[in-house]
């Protein structure tokens, strides 16, 4: 266990100091009090508010640096690995626990979100811990497990709305097994959400209104397509990377899928139905919900990935030789290495962009609402919206960030041309395009 956690820690420290991207920057500004009172902001957010409160506690102790803001996710990622090992021991033996722990420690997607100052790693930790104590309670009643199950279950309910489907699945299972003691704990945890219900209804109403006025918003935040389900599995096993050459992409995914299938076909799914209960209902219900509200993205169901890795570990443990396990872990290391050396897959590099722009420059964005990273990195001057603002100055630095969403008809670019500006140079940062406009003499 110690060596697995040590490995998990090392892998999660690499590239931890990347620039904050938009959502992380918004979170940072909220914790710094620049978005109004934190509780007011937390209650108005689309996600339940627990992550904001935990983030606030950490920033009071460690400050607002990129690393400090990501500490809750780092710690959550390590606890997830720990509980994956423990669940592996509960459903099998020490060997299965170690294999599952190694898979979780080296999984590219779990590592990526262990380095992000958002709620996904925290939710994954809480759900994994909840399932561990759920399994213990199904085997034997224990005051300690009662308390910890209640704690972790309540916690995941307060960090992610899609995790509510986990509670639904656990509740139906407890009812089926006539474990009314567990069911009463689940009801108690669910009742705590009534305190947040007014804020949830308000956020839901705002989301539906935004979807009507801006359909493109739905596509960005969680649009449903035929690729949603297969993409979930692909990202679970290869992480946030991609390949321009679709042949290479397809061959790689095919090889990984074949290796995983060889292992999974050896799993006794009937015996390990609790892992299926963890894995399948949140995806099906999440996709169903996305049919009328854009909530489904693979990273929003990150909390089911440990269940998949545990099933994979069960299959790999059936082989009489160690080579299949080594192959799967080596593939994960290769994918990690490719991510590490490919800046295009790193987080948006707002930090370097702000460093490169002259301090007295005129800056423009398709929407000023996306200025959180600039504010976090110290930009305190006015920002133009070229789609409708009067353009002034000899040189304008136009950050073409999510232009398709906020200026799909390219009114901003038309305004530049109409006002006598032309692009003289362009710069690319990770996830960001910068066009430098000069006015004709």
UniProtKB/TrEMBL annotation:
Gene Ontology terms: cellular component: plasma membrane
Keywords for this protein: Cell membrane, Glycosyltransferase, Membrane, Transferase, Transmembrane, Transmembrane helix
Q: How does it sit in the membrane?
A: Multi-pass membrane protein
User: What sequence ranges are listed for the domain Glycosyltransferase RgtA/B/C/D-like?
Assistant: 47-195
Name of the featured protein: Glycosyltransferase RgtA/B/C/D-like domain-containing protein
Sequence intervals crossing the membrane: 67-85, 97-114, 120-138, 150-176, 182-201, 247-267, 273-293, 298-316, 322-341
Instruction: Name where it mostly resides.
Output: membrane
Q: Which organism is it from?
A: Candidatus Collierbacteria bacterium CG10_big_fil_rev_8_21_14_0_10_44_9
According to its UniProt entry, the protein's GO biological process terms are: lipopolysaccharide biosynthetic process
A Pfam entry, by short name = PMT_2
Q: Which InterPro entries match?
A: LipidA_mod_glycosyltrf_83 (IPR050297), RgtA/B/C-like (IPR038731)
List the Gene Ontology MF annotations in alphabetical order.
Answer: pentosyltransferase activity
Q: Where in the cell is it found?
A: Cell membrane
């Amino acid at each position: 266990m110690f060596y697995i956690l040590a490995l998990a820690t090392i892998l999660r420290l690499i590239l931890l100091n990347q620039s904050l991207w938009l959502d992380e920057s918004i979170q940072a500004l909220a914790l710094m009090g620049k978005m109004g009172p934190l509780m007011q902001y937390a209650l108005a957010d689309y996600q339940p508010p627990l992550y904001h409160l935990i983030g606030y506690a950490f920033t009071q102790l460690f400050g607002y640096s990129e690393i400090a803001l990501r500490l809750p996710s780092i710690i959550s990622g390590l606890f997830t690995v720990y509980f994956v090992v423990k669940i592996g021991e509960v459903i099998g033996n020490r060997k299965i626990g170690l294999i599952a722990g190694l898979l979780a420690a080296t999984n590219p997607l779990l590592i990526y979100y262990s380095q992000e100052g958002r709620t996904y790693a925290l939710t994954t930790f809480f759900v994994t811990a909840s399932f561990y104590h759920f399994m213990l309670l199904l085997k034997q009643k224990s005051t300690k497990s009662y308390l910890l199950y209640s704690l972790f279950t309540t916690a995941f309910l307060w960090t992610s709305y899609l995790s509510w489907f986990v509670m639904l699945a656990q509740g139906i299972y407890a009812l089926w097994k006539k474990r009314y003691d567990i069911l009463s704990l689940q009801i108690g945890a669910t009742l705590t959400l009534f305190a947040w219900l007014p804020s949830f209804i308000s956020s839901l109403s705002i989301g539906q209104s935004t979807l009507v006025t801006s359909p493109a918003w739905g596509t960005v935040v969680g649009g449903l397509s035929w690729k949603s389900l297969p993409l979930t599995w692909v990202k679970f096993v290869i992480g946030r990377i991609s390949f321009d050459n679709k042949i290479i992409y397809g061959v790689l995914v095919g090889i990984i899928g074949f290796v995983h299938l060889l292992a999974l076909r050896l799993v006794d799914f009937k015996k390990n139905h609790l892992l299926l209960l963890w894995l399948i209902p949140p995806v099906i219900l999440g996709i169903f919900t996305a049919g009328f509200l854009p909530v489904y993205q693979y990273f929003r169901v990150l909390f089911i990935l440990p269940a998949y890795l545990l099933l994979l570990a069960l299959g790999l443990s059936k082989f009489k030789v160690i080579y299949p396990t080594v192959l799967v872990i080596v593939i994960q290391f290769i994918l990690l290495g490719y991510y590490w050396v490919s800046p295009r897959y790193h987080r948006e590099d707002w930090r370097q962009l702000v460093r490169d722009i002259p301090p007295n420059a005129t800056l423009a964005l398709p929407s000023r609402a996306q200025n959180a990273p600039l504010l976090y990195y110290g930009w305190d001057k006015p920002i133009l919206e070229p789609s409708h603002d009067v353009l002034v100055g000899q040189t304008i630095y136009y950050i073409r960030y999510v232009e398709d969403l906020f200026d799909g008809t390219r009114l901003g670019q038309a305004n530049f041309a109409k006002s006598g500006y032309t692009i003289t140079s362009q710069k690319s940062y990770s996830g960001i395009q910068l066009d430098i406009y000069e006015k004709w003499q």
